[in-house]
């Protein structure tokens, strides 16, 4: 049976999600939704999609749609998501998963009651270099994990553009921030690698007090843009997390993790993708002089991480996020068919949102917050 997909959002949805879905066998994208009839019809025609919607609730109720792919603002998405789950739809939901902790709990209750498959569009764990890094940690390459550093820093508004489709990131009611957005994307692979977080302490602040557009117009953002946190994982390691969208000359992605026997590092110049993220490592047994400067070696990534014979695209696809995204979608389709589990699923999303709430409380109360306090 072919699963029919409806996508809410024609910008990133049309550019990246649509080709990713089209690469997955057993799936057909049959509908696209925007906020206005004229843009929805234009998008459907341009993208070669059969049906146009300009009411997301209507798409989420439609009996001829099996999977709803929800983009745009977290505060917009929550009611659509609840409608979709109430009508038996499987959901591929953007990140951040929810506008806040209360919204996350409401989504979780709706998901638990639905029996549907829910997946979050947080695909870094499927990027070949990161996927291999996670696997090597699980195989014991670094021994017992001790600690590390994770950065996801980009420069979205240091030179603001009115053409950028996410200028609504300035709005405090949208449920976004540098730490919520980039920090959530970083937390998914960290949890996949190291397991649950036990407690956190955090600082979340705004460093860009205004955005200046090309024509000189200035906007005062209502959101924070730069977050720093310490994450203590239940199995022992402590990881420094820095995430935001306002770093001057941003350093992109870094996940540097070390243990009793070695160290593994993935790097990318911006948001990690299948094409630009590299893997480096070194084991203590391979370093003759433990006191000499450490030169990590580039590690080979098996071809199986770059090509999936069941997908119509591979890691060389010209839109870099599409391949890891398609891998997550493929696993979702398999889970719908009862073959395995989806990842990252809505249970993982709840834990990421719990971490986010703990970091928010840590910022407000200036103390370590145990995740067990967040209920």
UniProtKB/TrEMBL annotation:
The UniProt record lists the keyword Oxidoreductase: yes
Keyword vocabulary terms for this entry: Oxidoreductase
Boundaries of every GFO/IDH/MocA-like oxidoreductase domain copy: 135-264
Residue span, Gfo/Idh/MocA-like oxidoreductase N-terminal domain: 3-117
Transferase among keywords: no
PANTHER family, per database record: BCDNA.GH03377
Protein's recorded name: Gfo/Idh/MocA family oxidoreductase
């Amino acid at each position: 049976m072919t699963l029919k997909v409806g996508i809410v959002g024609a910008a990133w949805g049309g550019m990246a999600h649509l080709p990713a879905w089209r690469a997955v066998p057993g799936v057909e994208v049959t509908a696209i939704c925007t906020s206005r009839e004229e843009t929805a019809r234009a998008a459907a025609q341009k993208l070669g999609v059969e049906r146009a919607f300009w009411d997301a609730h209507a798409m989420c109720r439609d009996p001829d749609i099996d999977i709803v792919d929800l983009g745009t603002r977290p505060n917009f998405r929550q009611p659509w998501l609840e409608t979709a789950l109430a009508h038996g739809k499987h959901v591929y939901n953007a990140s951040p998963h929810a506008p806040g902790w209360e919204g996350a709990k409401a989504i979780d209750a709706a998901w638990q009651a639905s029996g549907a498959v829910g997946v979050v569009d947080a695909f870094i764990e499927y990027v070949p270099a990161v996927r291999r890094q996670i696997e090597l940690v699980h195989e014991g390459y670094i021994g017992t994990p001790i600690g590390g550093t994770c950065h996801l820093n980009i420069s979205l508004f240091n030179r603001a553009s009115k053409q950028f489709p996410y200028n609504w990131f300035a709005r405090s009611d949208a449920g976004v921030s540098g730490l919520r957005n980039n920090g959530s994307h970083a937390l998914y692979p960290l949890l996949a690698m190291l397991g649950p977080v036990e407690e956190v302490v955090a600082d979340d602040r705004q460093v860009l007090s205004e955005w200046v557009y090309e024509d000189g117009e200035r906007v005062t953002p209502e959101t924070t843009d730069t977050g720093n946190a310490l994450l203590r994982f239940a199995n022992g390691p402590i990881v420094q997390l820095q995430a935001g969208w306002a770093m001057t000359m941003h350093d992109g992605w870094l996940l540097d993790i070390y243990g009793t026997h070695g160290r593994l590092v993935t790097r990318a110049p911006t948001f990690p993708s299948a094409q630009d993220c590299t893997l480096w490592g070194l084991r203590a047994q391979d370093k003759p002089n433990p006191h000499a400067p450490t030169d990590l070696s580039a590690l080979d990534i098996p071809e199986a991480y770059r090509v999936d014979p069941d997908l119509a695209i591979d890691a060389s696809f010209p839109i870099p996020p599409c391949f890891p995204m398609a891998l997550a979608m493929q696993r979702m389709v398999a889970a719908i068919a009862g073959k395995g589990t989806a990842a990252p699923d809505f249970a993982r999303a709840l834990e990421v949102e719990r971490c986010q709430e703990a970091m928010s409380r840590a910022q407000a109360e200036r103390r370590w917050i145990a995740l067990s306090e967040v209920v």
